[in-house]
Write a structure and sequence with these properties.
There is one protein chain. The protein has helices spanning about 5-15, 25-50, 55-60, 65-70. The protein has about 80 residues and is mostly helical.
Length: about 80
């Protein structure tokens, strides 16, 4: 019977032999991660602004705290 380790080992060996990504690729990945974080923050803050008082109470946030957080720009954490 073939184990997972037997299947994964050649792939792991390949990854370990690889050199680091070229600088433009590293930059592109970093930029994509940053844009994804910004998008998530923007959507989360929009949803937070739409929660009712009861829902805010359930998660332990006051309406004022929710307002302050939802009005932050997407690039601020």
């Amino acid at each position: 019977m073939t184990s997972y380790q037997d299947i994964a080992e050649p792939h792991l060996a390949y990854l370990m032999r690889r050199t680091a990504l070229p600088m433009p690729a590293q930059f592109a990945i970093s930029f994509a991660v940053l844009v994804t974080k910004w998008s998530f923050r923007r959507r989360s803050r929009q949803h937070l602004a739409q929660l009712s008082a009861h829902q805010l109470k359930d998660i332990g946030i006051t309406a004022h705290d929710a307002y302050v957080e939802s009005t932050l720009p997407f690039w601020r954490s």
